[in-house]
């Protein structure tokens, strides 16, 4: 106990002397907890909140936002705390030389980390409470949340965010403290920091584990088991980009964990042009990056997160949007789509006018709500539901649906869709175990029940069509038309003339699909920005934080270069080249992750969006990758060169006597 009391003054002196490193750890954790707490408060607020029609599920959207914020925060906070501990290798060796045991060293490191983390967690919760209303207002302004939606402070999400931040910080510090405890006393005499064994067995195991989870997640979304399809949101093609974030995160985690193995060959690759550079700046920067792998990896981590996540998520969002647009254009067969201009029903006189056009083929439809659809007295198979989990919209069709849409029947035939029959999506049939020939009982909101025989299972129904289609004659009640599909030999002017004086408008099929896809694309971008925006902003701030920590740790290196004849400009050139190496390495890792996730996205699109006759091309988001790399490079150069320039104002001898 006496020995531990003696360590307290040492800890206090260390925190005073190395305050930049502790400030860096504080900032990383405080901002991480702020992002997690803001997302958690919003997630708690969305409980029971209704989403706007046509907008993404608000609860799921905020849930993904909270997940992404937590993921990035865990990555940055653990890396930053581990880096802060690794900076003290020589100081730790001196403690070992004067008799401190490994256990005492670990206690010292963990005690300092706990002191910083407690204050940072409280500060982060305060910041999170201030940020949450701004995010809620942004969601309302973009139409992703209903008017009046606002954040409501709650203790539980704040407690979870603070506890999570504390746990991650302590785990990161503990892993580094175990390495610190194994430092040999003789290393106190070593002025050169060379990292050895930067990939312990535990890190290899974790990397392999996340690679396995990545493969399992991708295969699960491709095969989509019935238990997963039971959620309509999982089946909806518009939400697929959000679910794809799961395997994006797994890929980022796996590559981030094996980064210490990938960094050295990448540094050697990028410094292969060193002989072309004037002076020794390139060579010195190369050796610094290779000797201090942990520092290089820690400073590259937030850059890698920004580039990798932006490339993966933006690339996936664009790929899914393009695929749904292409499939929609290929699926819509009708030349015109007729809708009520007053938002109610297409009037009968408009339909008569359209039917009188030359070679007119008219298919009308109306939306019908099903409260239930199930086989009578069905005995559920293990893991299968027996009825619709929620009321679901269907389409009641008057005419031949094949005249309006090019649809693929995986079983049965749409030619049999007449009388008391029903066609369902292949996904819905898999969920409930329905087969062609089964008789289902449909329940309508007014209590009416109607027996319907399954005549077709249709694959790849897009958001433009519901998953349940019935003939209009199969359901009781008046025939109200909400949409009509028209194919005709008449020109657009004749179609417009046929609707004059009615409350209906006709849009060409191409324009109608384009407008629907534009709305879907807008929703996709809103979801992407909501999910990724706070996490990327935090990662960008972390770039500045870790670069400043790294520069502050190298004051004696600067002094050594100055005392051996280097000028201020040459020292700054070394810093700039090393920063370029860090960003180049991180961008290569980000490109690798983007390539892997885009290939996975193509597989998912071909299995969940496109029909069997179409394929998706692998297309990387080069503009996004280039833009995020440029932003990261600018921030990294500013946050490394400015502190270095300020430090170089001090005399070299004074810098040389500064303890790292």
Q: Could you characterize the architecture of this molecule?
A:
By secondary structure, this protein is α+β, with helices and mostly antiparallel strands. The chain is 62% helix and 10% strand. The chain has helices at 2-17, 19-45, 58-86, 89-97, 102-141, 155-181, 201-223, 226-229, 232-235, 240-257, 259-270, 281-291, 293-331, 348-355, 426-432, 492-498, 509-552, 555-563, 568-608, 622-647, 652-656, and strands at residues 336-340, 361-370, 372-374, 392-398, 408-412, 421-425, 439-443, 449-459, 468-471, 483-487, 504-508. Strands 1, 2, 3, 4, 5, 6, 7, 8, 9, 10 and 11 form an 11-stranded mixed β-sheet that branches. The chain is elongated. Residues 188-194 have low confidence and may be disordered.
Assembly state (oligomeric) = single chain
Total beta-strand segments? 11
The proportion of residues forming helix, as a percent range, comes to 55-70%
Rg (CA only):
31 Å
> Residue ranges: pLDDT <50 for 5 or more in a row?
188-194
Number of separate helices: 21
Shape: elongated
Outline the biggest β-sheet: 11 strands, mixed
**Separation, N- and C-terminal Cα atoms:** 28 Å
Query: Which percent range describes the beta-strand content?
Result: 5-15%
Derived structural class = alpha+beta
Mean pLDDT: 79
Q: Can I get a quick summary?
A:
The protein is α+β, with helices and mostly antiparallel strands and 660 residues long. It is built from 21 helices and 11 strands.
Annotate the secondary structure layout.
Elements: H1 2-17, H2 19-45, H3 58-86, H4 89-97, H5 102-141, H6 155-181, H7 201-223, H8 226-229, H9 232-235, H10 240-257, H11 259-270, H12 281-291, H13 293-331, E1 336-340, H14 348-355, E2 361-370, E3 372-374, E4 392-398, E5 408-412, E6 421-425, H15 426-432, E7 439-443, E8 449-459, E9 468-471, E10 483-487, H16 492-498, E11 504-508, H17 509-552, H18 555-563, H19 568-608, H20 622-647, H21 652-656
Parallel strand pairs: 4-9, 6-8
Antiparallel strand pairs: 1-10, 1-11, 2-4, 2-10, 3-7, 5-8, 6-9, 7-8
Helix pairs in contact: 1-5, 2-3, 2-5, 2-6, 2-17, 3-6, 3-10, 3-13, 3-17, 5-6, 7-10, 7-19, 10-13, 10-19, 11-13, 11-19, 12-19, 13-17, 13-19, 13-20, 17-20, 19-20
